[in-house]
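Weekly sync notes, structure subgroup
Attendees: PM, AL, DS (notes)

Item 1: joint prediction request from the bench team. They want all two components modeled as one assembly rather than separately. Inputs as received:
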Amino acid sequence: MLVLTAMGFVLIAARLVFLQVIERKDLSRRAERQQERLMKLDPKRGTIYDRMGRELAVSLDVESVYGVPSEVEDPRAVAGRLARVLSQDPRDLQRKLTGERQFVWISRRVEPAKAERAKAVDPGAIGLTSEARRFYPKRALAGSVLGFTDIDNRGLEGVELQYDDLLRGVDGWILAEKDAKGRTVFPGGHGFQYRLPEPGRDLVLTVDEVVQHIADKELDRGLADSKARGGICIVMNPHNGAILALSVRTAGRGRGAFNPNDPQHYRPDEWRNRAVTDAYEPGSIFKAITAAAALEERVVQPREQFDCSAGSIHVADRVIKDAHQNGVLTFADVIAESSNVGTIKVAQRLGKAKLAKYIEAFGFGRRTGVDLPGEIPGIFRDHRLWSGVSLATISIGQEIGVTPIQMAAAYGAIANGGTLLRPYVVAEVRGRGNEEGTRTALVAAGRVASPETCTTLQRILQKAVESGTGQKAKPAGYTAAGKTGTAQKIDPRTGRYSKDDYVSSFVGFTPAGAPKLVILVMLDSPVGVVWGGSVAAPVFRAVAEQSLAYLQVPPDDLGGRMLLVTR
Amino acid sequence: MSTRAGHIGSVPLPRAGHGNLRWVVIAAVVVVVSMFVVGGKAQVMRLGYQIDELEKQKRELERANRALTIEASSLAAPARVEEIAVKRFGMVRPAKENIVVVKRRQTAAPPQAGAPKGARSAGER
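Output from the run, pasted for the record:
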C-alpha cells in the first residue's frame, strides 16, 4: 500500500516536472494564445479635396453589428428578433449565430438607431463597433477620377486605388484578454499593450469641382444631342499638366453617370477611367502632330500651296479620299480644312523615320505617367514595321491607337510652346498634424518642338476654329485654336473600317494667344450627324465659355467692347 | 450623615482602559483615513465615468459634425446649386452682348525715391 502511494506521488511529481519545467514554454504560449485577443483598430481614411479645398471623398464612422455565437443561448429566437430589426433573412442569421465561434459580422455600416435596437436584442451576445464608411458627397461628380473603396476601406479604382497606401493610414491594435466566458477584457495598467492607428493622409486634387461639373453637364448634353454611346471630356492646364476636369460617361444605361457611392449598381467596365485605359484611333485631330513635325523639320511653309483638287490620293494599293472636295490649299488651310490628301503629301516629304520621331516625342506609344491606375501606352508600332500605306494613314490619325489623356497632353505641349508635361490629378499630399505636405512637382517629359513652330501651329489651329472645320468650337468672347476629328471605327465583324460607326472629337486650347485651358472632347459612336466639328466642337465651346468665365479669364475677343480704365 | 474631609486623590483609570482608548483613536484614524482613501477612489472613479461619458459625447459630436459636413458638402454640389439658381430663381448666364470687359490701362513705373512730393508719373491722369 505504502509502495503504491509512493509510486503515485512519484508519478504526480514527474507529471508536474514535465508540465512546469519541460513543457512550460509551450504551454504558457498556448495559454496566452487562448487568453489573449488582438483587436485591430482601423485608421481614419484620408479625405480627398478638390483644388479649392471642397470635400470630394470623406469617411464617417458608422456602427457595425457583430455577434458572439458562443454566448447565444437561443440562436433561433435571437435571429428572429434581429431579422425584424435589420430586415435580414432569419435563417441566414440563425446559421451565423449557431456554433462556438467568438465573432461573426451580423450587419456592417448600419444606421445608429438600428444598431442600438439590434444590440438591445441580446446585449450579452450582440455588440457594436465603429467602422468608417466612405462617402462621396458630390455623388457622380469626378466619379471616374475618385474611384471607390471596398467594404474594408481598401481602394479599388481611381485615386482611391492609386494613393491607397497614403489614404489608408496605418492600422492600430489593442492586446485585450478573454475571461473564462470568452468575453473581452481590457487589462489596463502597465501591462496594457496597444498601438494607436495612424490616420491616412488627405489629398488635394487638381480637379476643380465647378469645372468638373461644367464638363460633366456639357458632355451629357453632347451625348444626348448626338445619341453617342459614350464620351470623354478632359480639361487641363497646359502650363503644368494639372487636370481640372476629367469626365467619362457611358450613355443609354438608364442609371446616369457612375456614382462611387453605389459601385455595385454599375458594371466593372463602367468603373474604368477610359480616358487612360482605352486607346482609340484619333483621326484628324492627329494631323496637328504631323503639322508640328513638318514645321519643325522645315519641310513646309504655312503659306505653301498644295493641290488637293483631285480629292483623293493613291498610296500603295489604297486610295485615300478627302471628306469633301477641296481645291488648291495652303498648308495652313490643309490643316484648317482637314484635308487628308494635303496632310499625306506633307507626311511624304517628312518620311517614316522623322514622322515616327515626332510621334514618339509627343508621347504616343508610351504612358504619360498620369497618377491614375490602369494607364495603357496606346498602340504605336516601330516605323521599321510600317507597311507601304502606314506613313499616309498614321499621318491622318489611322493605324495608331492613342489614349485621350495622351492627346490632351500633346495639345498641351503645342499650347505651352513645346514642352510635353506629365498630366496629374493629385496636387498635394497633406501632412499629418503640423507636418508639411508634399506638393506635386511639375514633370517635363521633353521638348517636342521649338516655340516658333508652336506659335505657327497655334495660328494654323486658330484658323481651323475661325474659318475651318471647327467653327462651332469658337467660345463667345474668346479666341480658340483646335482641330476636329471624325475617325472611322473598325467593325469587329468585318475587320474593316465601318461606314457608320465613328469616334468624333475636338481638341484645342483657349484663349488662342495665351492658352489657359486645353479641352478634349471625344464622343463614341454618335448617330446621324457624326462630324467632330458638328457634335464635339459645340461641347468644347460650352465647356470653354463657362470654365473661362468661372476662372475669371478676361475675354480676348469682344469685338472692341472693352473699356479701358486707369487705376 | 458623617462627612470625611481630606484629599480624595486622583482616580486612576485602569491600565486596560488606557489601551482601549488608544485603539479607539487608532481605529478612528484608520476609519477616517480609509474614508478619505475610499472617498478619493470613489471620486476618481466618478471622474473617470464622467471623462468616459464626456469622451463619448465628444466622439458623438465629432461624428455629428462630420455627418453635417458631408451633408453641407452634398447640398453645395454645383449641380444642385445650378438647378436651384436656374429653376427657382430663373437665373441665366449673361449673353455676350451684355458683357463689357473692363481692362486696366498699363500705368508707368512708380516715381523714384527722392522725387518731389506730389509729382505725377507720365501715365497718371
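Discussion: Residues 113-125 of chain B have pLDDT under 50 and may be disordered.
Action: AL to compare against the crosslinking data before next sync.
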